[in-house]
Design brief:
- It is built from one helix and three strands, in the order βββα.
- The chain has one domain.
- The chain is of the alpha+beta class and about 70 residues long.
- Helices cover about 25% and strands about 30% of the residues.
- The longest helix is centred in the C-terminal third of the chain and has 16 residues.
- A three-stranded antiparallel β-sheet has the order 1-2-3, with no helix packed on it.
Length: about 70
């Protein structure tokens, strides 16, 4: 993992088409701005982790009805 220190107003560029800028720092809150092509999906990691966990739990749940008639 690359670790960088940035101040408010500073940023980094990834692959020449993704820019990340530190917009502000207030206490333990950091506001980040991200410019990326529309086809690049950007997720908050805690929401992505939660979605993955929910999907795994759903797959393990028995007797799921998908609205398909059973013979």
């Amino acid at each position: 993992m690359l670790v960088l220190s940035r101040k408010a107003g500073e940023g980094i560029t990834v692959n020449q088409d993704i820019s990340i800028e530190i917009l502000s720092i207030e206490g333990d809150r950091v506001r980040i701005g991200i410019q990326a092509p529309k086809d690049v999906r950007i997720y908050r990691s805690e929401l992505l982790d939660q979605t993955i966990d929910l999907n795994r739990a759903a797959v393990k749940t028995p007797n799921i009805s998908f609205g398909v008639a059973q013979p």
